[in-house]
Amino acid sequence: MSYQRRQSPKLVRTLRKYAASTFVIGSFVAYAVHERSLPATNSSELALAPSAIALAQATTQPVVALPTLTQLPPATERPTKQVATQTIPQPTARPRATALPKPTAKPTAVPEPTAIPTTVVAQGQYKDGIYTGDIVDAYYGNVQVQAVIQAGKITNVQFLDYPHDRRTSLRINKIAGPYLTTEAIQAQSAQVDLISGATLTSEAFVQSLQTALESAHA
Amino acid sequence: MIQQTRLLMGMPITIEIIDGAASAETLDWLFGYFEAVDQRFSTYKSQSEISRINAGELTVAQASFDMQAVFALAERTRQETNGYFDIWRNNAYDPSGLVKGWAIYQAALLLWQAGFTNFFVDAGGDVQTSGRNRHGQPWRVGIRNPFNAREIVKVLTMTTGGLATSGTYVRGQHIYDPINPDQLLTDIVSLSVIGPNIYEADRLATAAFAMGRAGILFIEQRSRCEGYMIDAAGQATFTSGFARYLAHG
Questions:
Q1: What digits encode the pLDDT tens for the residues B59-116?
Q2: Contact yes or no for A142/A163 (Cβ under 8 A)
Q3: Crossing angle of helices A77-85/A49-59, nearest 10°?
Q4: pTM attached to this predicted model
């Protein structure tokens, strides 16, 4: 039951391609907008910059230094941010194969590749992060849970507060996750032929029968 | 249609037979069967076969065919549930966790052999249904609210099958975790299991309940079984095929 969600390498590659493409296109758009707002004298220098960075990034490491799961910036911010923080190469540094930044020259803030898809594919009904619920009176004591959402899905539920001080962890693994469903119980008024429940004692049955008979009298 | 409830084995047992051929004698015969099971398997009766085995007066090999069958089924269940179901506890055998479902199923087998097709047998909230109810419809079976015995929280429709519920309510802590015997099972308060028959449903419900929250995953992985689990917070978790049994309207 200790299965950890892990992204497939294929997904990582696909997402990196998309991220790189998004960055290239975004850079051009950003540049186009930027150029129109600048004096004409600077335009020739800057024209080369975004594509050079894009080339470098596409062949080395993920695009942006993404922060932790809970602080995912909007997608549209990424290319702009990149342009703003990178040192813009001079025209003389026009990319040749040897002039491209080495993978070792990557900024230290660039995360591990596996961190990228986790945030990018977050498209379920939940936002990624760790959420703590309210303390709820659960008949036998208080219950408080903490849910971990990854890639839009609940991957772990921890009991922070629990009757009898027992901490329990429910790990929903890959097999069970999609199949089990939860709901709050709700009393039903429909007629039934019989009822299943934990075993009634004879005494409880007699008591119950008595109350039933009493109400039948009324 | 004929229906009767009697208090046997410390719990109410209700038998309802729709088929016209059923008579008071049919019911006497079936209740007599439950009495015989109680005489043989009750750990509260000092002269029962199981008590004599526990006292060392009798070996399992010398015991009745039924006793040997129950011991064999218990051992098989222990293996299938990774030790979560075990009739050996406190230096004695107590097969009552298995005997109830087994006895209900045996009673149903007797009814089928006698030619009856539409009936239910309910022993202390564990149920074997067969065929259809008095309206010619599938049986409508409620799942009791563990927090209020006067309420039901789910209505299921069943033709032929078993539905057993294990829980900590009403009787208190009557199920324990054989792997960690000192640990209280307060997390899950009710676990209902639908199975192909009440023997399967009852033994799996008992074992899965002892597994705590993982129990519902165990039921999910069993073919032909569905489960509905209620925790102490009143939150229910159910298996992928459970909704198939839900009554509409």
A1: 999 999 999 999 999 999 999 988 888 899 888 999 988 999 999 999 999 999 999 9
A2: yes
A3: 100
A4: 0.60
Model pLDDT for residues B26-60, shown as the tens digit of each residue: 999 999 999 999 999 999 999 999 999 999 999 99
Q: Please tell me the distance from the alpha carbon of residue A52 to that of residue B121, in angstroms, as a whole number.
A: 79
Q: Which residue in B178, B119, B156 sits closest to B239, CA to CA?
A: B156
Cβ-based contacts of A201 with chain B (< 8 Å): 10-11, 170-171
Here the ipTM equals 0.88
CA distance A187 to chain B (A): 5
Q: What pLDDT was estimated at residue A6? A: 54
Residue in chain B closest to A180 (alpha carbons) equals B239
B238 contacts in chain A (CB < 8 Å)? 180-183
Contacts of B173 (CB under 8 A, 6+ apart): B184, B185
Q: Do B232 and A140 touch (CB under 8 A)?
A: yes
In A, minimum Cα distance to B153 occurs at: A187
- Dig out the tokens for B130 from the structure: 């067969």
Is A125 an 8 Å CB contact of chain B? no
pLDDT in tens, A64-113: 333 333 333 343 333 333 333 333 344 444 444 433 444 444 444 433 33
CB pairs under 8 A between A and B: 173
Tell how far CA A140 is from the center of its chain: 33
**Chain centroid to CA B27:** 20
Interface touch A187/B152, C-beta < 8 Å: yes
CA-nearest residue to B121 within chain A is A194
Tell me the C-alpha distance between B158 and B71, whole Å: 30
List the one residue out of B138, B100, B135 whose CA is nearest residue B121. B100
| Percent of residues, chain B, with pLDDT higher than 70 | 92
Residue A205 near residue B131, CB atoms below 8 Å: no
Amino acid of residue B14: T
Chain A residues in contact with B140 (beta carbon < 8 A): 190-193
